Amino acid sequence: MIELMDDLPSNVLGFSARGKVTGGDYEQVLIPAVEAKLKEHPKVRLLYHLGAQFEGFEAEALWDDAKVGLHHLNDWERIAVVSDTGWIRGAVKVFGFAMPGRIRTFADAELAEAKDWIAEA
Predict the structure, then answer these.
(1) Is residue 85 helix, strand or coil?
(2) C-alpha–C-alpha distance, residues 116 and 107, integer Å
(3) What is the rounded distance in angstroms from the CA atom of residue 93 to the CA atom of residue 91?
(4) Spatial CA neighbour of 89 closest among 106, 109, 65
(5) Local structure of 43: helix, strand or coil
(6) For the chain, what is the total number of helices (H) and then of strands (E)?
(7) CA distance 82 to 49
(8) Are strands 12-21 and 2-4 parallel, antiparallel or unpaired?
(9) How far apart are CA 72 and CA 83, in angstroms?
(10) Is the pLDDT higher at 98 or at 91?
(11) How many CA atoms lie within 13 Å of 51's alpha carbon, on the beta-carbon side?
(12) Residue 93 confidence (pLDDT)
């Protein structure tokens, strides 16, 4: 399940993942939120929290994630990924170089620091 975070500046989209993330989560929550935010701002900042209750992605969700990232490749100003899951942190480091904008990973305990970083001018 993906839920929108509501305590962030207007140019920041924040998502929190719990349980198993499905393609439906992307199609019903994440993608519409990204599209709506890009109508308001030319560049968007993204905070993605995959905390202790996160159990993984279904294959369709991984595919949707890749499509959203590639379709909006130049629309990301900053991306913060908050997770203690090793393969997620590793994937961000491996693929992050290909993304324009700044990308950082944070440990789950650093969620507040990630929110500060994503919101700073």
Answers:
(1) coil
(2) 14
(3) 5
(4) 106
(5) coil
(6) 5, 5
(7) 5
(8) antiparallel
(9) 23
(10) 91
(11) 16
(12) 84
Quick one: which H or E segment has residue 70?
Answer: helix 59-71
Does the pLDDT value for residue 71 go beyond 80?
A: no
Tokens found for residue 115? 């929110």
CB count within 10 Å of CB 73 equals 12
DSSP one-letter code for 10:
T
The residue behind tokens 């170089």 is 97
Confidence bin at 72 (pLDDT 50/70/90): confident
* Amino acid identity for residue 30 in this structure: L
Q: What is the DSSP letter of 74?
A: T
Q: Which amino acid is at 67?
A: K
Q: What is the CA radius of gyration of the chain?
A: 13
Q: What is the pLDDT of residue 14?
A: 97
